[in-house]
Amino acid sequence: MYLSKCDTVNQEQIAKHFMLDKGSVAKTLHKLEKKQLIIRKDNPQNRREKLINITESGFNMVSMLNAEFQQLHSHLFEGLSEDEIQAFILAIQKISDNAAKIINERMTDNENKES
Q1: CA–CA separation, 85 vs 78, rounded Å?
Q2: Please, what sign has the CA dihedral across residues 29, 105, 88, 82?
Q3: What is the distance between the alpha carbons of residues 92 and 88, in angstroms, rounded to a whole number?
Q4: Cα-based distances in Å from 92 to 1, 85, 96, 111
Q5: Can you give the pTM of this predicted structure?
Q6: Per-domain residue ranges for the chain?
Q7: First vs last Cα of the chain: how many Å apart?
Q8: Which helix (DSSP H) or strand (DSSP E) does residue 25 occupy?
């Protein structure tokens, strides 16, 4: 889904966005490549870097997943007003931002200790 919103990215950008190590991202990308959902190619400016693009099959998969998520969304939020849904989403976003801040601080602290 992330790749469907980006034009071309590298593994490092994906790892940073999801706060994952590059090895985990590489393994996942390998699986997606085997399923022909993405294409990885060498960056002409940096041969060690792989550029990742989503394939047509990947876009089709994302479209199917979006339809499923929409259906699930309507069931999960059944009986809630739009204001209640927006308040819930805002609260979850704040919690997520706080968690990301804590993780980033701990990663920075660990990097400083290793230096």
Answers
A1: 10
A2: negative
A3: 6
A4: 19, 11, 6, 28
A5: 0.68
A6: 1-76, 79-115
A7: 36
A8: helix 22-34
Q: Name, in order, each residue with C-beta under 8 angstroms of 41's C-beta and a sequence gap of 6 or more.
A: 50, 51, 53
Q: What is the amino acid identity at position 5?
A: K
Which pLDDT tens digit goes with each residue over 68-111?
999 999 999 999 999 999 999 999 999 999 998 998 888 877 77
The Cα 56–Cα 60 span in angstroms is: 6
**What would the two tokens of residue 95 be?**
């919690």
**Ranges of H-type helices in 52-81:** 56-76
Instruction: Evaluate whether 78 touches 62 at the Cβ level (below 8 Å).
Output: no
Alpha carbon separation from 80 to 70, 73, 84, 109, 111 (Å, rounded): 15, 11, 6, 42, 44
> What number does CATH give the domain 1-76?
1.10.10.10
Cα angle, residue 43 at apex, residues 38 and 48 outer, rounded to 5°:
100
